[in-house]
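Appendix B. Chain record.
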Amino acid sequence: MISPTLEPLQILELLYRQGYRSNLIDRSLNKIIELERANNLKQASELQTKWQAYELQYHMASDTFYQRFNEGSLGDDMDYFEWSVFYELWQSVQERLQVLQPNRQ
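Structure tokens predicted for this chain:
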């Protein structure tokens, strides 16, 4: 008997480990991954647009800015805090995209 405390993905994993296969589940999961990939690509683009505006304004690449900001050599300007948040969020989305599209680089 399947425990009621198992999460849905754990249940599917257990079924598949036992040899169960379902075209419906496969198609559904692939569609969910496609939607998540599209959502993350959109989010990455929006965040990139935001941090690129700061790059233009301050004439500095975001990776350089981020390193200098974290070292404390740029000060506490509100723009810097916003820029760092946009850049961190963008990096996080990039990490998710590495998982969502492992064969696309």
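Further analysis of this model is presented in Appendix C.
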